[in-house]
Amino acid sequence: MVNTMHIITTDDDPAIRKILRIILSKAGYQVTLCTHGQELLDTLSVHAEHVDALLLDIRMPGLSGFEVLSIIKKAYPSIPVIMLTAFSDLETGMKAIRLGAADYLPKPVHQSELIECVQRVITTARQEQRKAEAFSINNEYQKKLEHQLNTAYTTIMQTTMATIEAFSETIEQKDPYTKGHCHRVRHLSRRIGECLHLSAQQCSTLEAGALLHDIGKISVPESILNKQGKLTAEEFSVIQMHPEAGTRIIGHIDLFKPYLEIVRSHHERFDGSGYPDGLKGEEIPMLARIVSVADAFDAMTSSRSYRSALPKEFAVEELKLYSGSQFDPAIVDIFIDNELNEL
Ligand SMILES: [Fe+2]
User: What domains sit in the chain, N to C, each tagged with a CATH number?
Assistant: First the structure.
């Protein structure tokens, strides 16, 4: 059998070096002999890539076999080392294994035992090397997949936001008085979310939901939306249907499902007297409670068909006045403490 594998044998005893070389050469191994630990380390520093296994005596002058083993396991962890010991006790063998030896053989070494041991440690080392390579390839593949997923997610989110912005513009075109309202509610809601230390994901949902919150107004006739005078009870009830209408409009679109609760519940009131479901307190989804405050503040401080813009100070007083009845008091406090009226 032609064997191209390379073994370095290190032993200070010339007789043992000779026997080991004869046995290994006969088995077809290429053999290099070293007489002490430092010579082995010097040889490895040049030829480590072409070495398949090491036979290393424990008791040697200069560096001991254990000292050399420790250095090799750090510098060349993939090369298997078989320790040769004159002590056949279990403790010495255990120490060798603990320090990273692949196996140990008591001297005098028997031919069949030596060849079986060398073949076994080389096979095991190669299997481990293949496993490590497969793990590394798998890891790289996983990173590539993660990158592709992130890119796809970013593209979907950009497309979703562009679609949502287009939707919000259709509302503003129907009702010119709300021009810019959806964008201002979006930014104000996000600032409230940040002050509440919401996650990036929640803030992103909040922004998109705030842009969409009045989408149901598409279904309200312009004659009602833009009416100059006071609304009749019937007209007001038509306006009040916009959260449910919005839920129906976007409910069919999977991408918009995360924003449904904001669209449906932004006119609920903290005391349970809001619409469409009469939810109370924390039954109202938190993101909808945030949009409710931002929506009311912006509505008060911008011009409408039936009145001109109110001063910001007045709007803040109104938020305080209706804190706990219309608005979540914790959110009103956050709004005031962080002076979000100054945005
Ligand atoms: Fe609304």
Answer: 6-138 (3.40.50.2300), 175-342 (1.10.3210.10)
